[in-house]
Write a structure and sequence with these properties.
- It is built from three helices and seven strands.
- A hairpin with a 2-residue loop joins strand 3 and strand 4.
- The longest helix is centred in the first third of the chain and has 15 residues.
């Protein structure tokens, strides 16, 4: 007796939905990913603190970085993308305030200062005075959270 075996073909995998899946994943990563707007050219180490709050981002935000550049001991101030010399600080801040107010005039301008933990308070106060004289109403500082158990 002879048994006829049928060769069953394996059905091919349909790839019709593959482009939809790839574009969905790509769209998800485009929405979730936040790109950094400013390349920080200043080296700084955040001070540590407790009871810190997160600040929501807006278009009317000016980022100020105070630290050292290229290992020097002199303080370097970067306002958004511009590294400002001390004598040009007022004009750079005025320019950034003008750019920030073009987008949305209803929201107040916010400044976020990221200063090195060893920066003298006189430098920070000078930056604050320049910001206030240009109409910046909210000033926030960045720090890293330290649990209260580690803090004396």
């Amino acid at each position: 007796m002879r048994i006829n075996r049928r060769h069953k073909d394996i059905p091919s995998l349909t790839t019709a939905a593959l482009p939809d899946l790839i574009f969905t994943v790509l769209f998800f990563f485009m929405i979730v990913t936040h790109l950094r707007e400013n390349d920080v050219q200043v080296e700084y180490h955040h001070p540590q603190g407790t009871h810190l709050k997160a600040v929501e981002r807006s278009d009317n935000t000016i980022y100020i970085y105070i630290g050292h550049k290229n290992g020097s001991d002199a303080n370097t101030i970067q306002v958004n993308k511009t590294v400002a010399e001390p004598h040009m600080l007022a004009s750079v801040i005025a320019n950034e305030v003008a750019i920030a107010t073009q987008g949305d005039r209803q929201r107040p301008i916010t400044a976020i200062i990221s200063a090195d933990k060893d920066t003298e308070m006189a430098v920070i106060m000078n930056v604050k005075q320049k910001l206030k004289s240009n109409g910046v109403q909210k000033i926030h500082y960045t720090a890293t959270e330290v649990s209260s158990l580690q803090h004396p």
